[in-house]
Every structure is written in structure tokens, then in C-alpha cells.
Amino acid sequence: xxPSAAARHDLLLRVAPAGPDGCISHVDPAIAGWxxxxxxxxxxxxxxxxxxxxxxxxxxxxLLEGYGSVTVGDRDLGRIGSRxxxxxxxxxxxxxxxxGTAFRLTAEGDALVAVGAAPGGPIRVNRYVAPEDVxxxxxxxxxxxxxxxxxxxxxxxxGRLIAFEVFTPGGNWSSYPPHKHDTENPPxxxxxxxxxxxxxxxxxxxxxxxxxxxxxxxxxxxxxxxCDVVLIPEGYHPVGVPAGYDCYYLNIMAGPNRAWFFTLxxxxxxxxxxxxxxxxxxxxGTAK
Length: 288
Fold this sequence. Notes:
The structure is a single chain. This protein has helices spanning 3-6, 29-32, and strands spanning 12-13, 23-27, 38-44, 49-52, 57-72, 75-83, 94-97, 103-107, 111-119, 127-129, 135-139, 146-152, 162-168, 173-174, 179-180, 193-200, 208-212, 219-222, 229-232, 239-240, 247-254, 263-264. The chain is an all-beta fold. The radius of gyration is 18 Å and the shape is globular.
């Protein structure tokens, strides 16, 4: 697939009512028009489960809100969770499931769960990372200040998936200055498909998201709301948040090679006020 083929697909996907299995959102390569990344989000009630049989996919299981019990292969991780809302403060626990390994998650009560997947890469490991071991970064300054949770950063041991959480105060900008990662040209740029799942501290909140290429063959402005999804198959992709509506989004990415190199929009590169080289700490994942 070429990036231009992906541009023909809808980039804004509205949340759906929970199905019998709790699914409120699903994206796969056929829906997104890209090659690798699948993400499914579930809103579960007590006793509901999410599970996958062993196959060729690497998976990232994120208990974004609530608590539950998780089994990976024949290993019982027990009860995990860290918050009832993404806005409560700490990062979520991180469960990385290697290709060839099954998993099962059972909700203890109301829970929001995201499962990201991509074909397995050269590294194939099962890892658990406790919330207190997730790197938290303050990025930007002034009206570009935001908080980043490095859930599965490039420095962490994994096969293909990369993931972050971004918290943007109302009135601020993030994914800023505009940058892109749609060309495989390391170490200048790495090709990554990117998925954004939004939450807002006030459920009526919204953001402004733009996805555009240098030649403007793709140029879409969108207004994601609570639990909506924005897809970034190519192009620059800044996010602006209206005053009064603190914003959260989950980024999940995958590409042909696991690296995070990006190129700034030269028109706006003068606004760069943070160093992408600063947060290099890797997590020490354990089997709980």
C-alpha cells in the first residue's frame, strides 16, 4: 500500500454503542487503508472478557480505565489496573503479548480496554510493565505544554508496536509543531501508521485535528469528540484543544521497522521547543 491509497479512507471514526462483546471502536488495515496496525477498544462491565488466541500478531493490552485480571499464555498476572479515569494521574499497566501467545482479560467492574496489534517483528517477548515504571515526560512550554506517558517507547523491548498517552490542557496544542513520519528514510524519518483514541475530561469536549501533506493532496480538518478515533496514514498532524476541555489521546503506531524518526513541517519548525532525544529511558518489564 502507498500513503496516497490510505488517504482515500475516512480519517475520523466516531465511537459506536458498545456491542455484545463491549466493543466501541475497531480499526484494522482494511478499514484504515494501511498495512499493519489493528486497534480495538472495549467498554466492559464486571465479568466481561477480552481474549485472543495465539497467532502471528504482537499485541499491546492496555487497561486504560478500571481493573481486571489478565492471563498471558500460562502466566497469571493477577489483578492489574491503576485508575478509574485516564485523567486520574498515573499511567496504565502495560501488557505486551508476543506472537504465538494467547491472552485473556476479565474486567473486575466497569473498564476501558484497548488492544493494539501488528504482525510480529524480530523481537518477540511477553512483558508486563507496572504503572510506576512508565516514563512520564513534561513536553513543550506555554500553550504547547502537555504531558506524555511513554507506554511502549522505541527504547523499550518490543517487536513492532510503539505507544504513548498524551494529555493536553484546554487551550493548548500538542503533536506540535506539526510533524510527519510517512517515509522510510532512517535516521531522518521512519514510516509509521498512527492511531489516535480521544478522551475528554468533560464528555462534551472536542479537539481540532488536522492531517495534511506538503502538496495538500491530503488536507483534512476534523473535530474528534470523546472516544472518537483519528487515523494518520501519512502527513503532518497537529492537535488543538479548545479552552476548558482537557484532552487525552492514546497513540498506537507500527511500521516496517520499529523506530520513531520524524520530520517537522518546515513552515512551522521554528516553534520546536522540546528535544526528541531527551526521553531515552527504557522500561524494565517483569512477569508479575
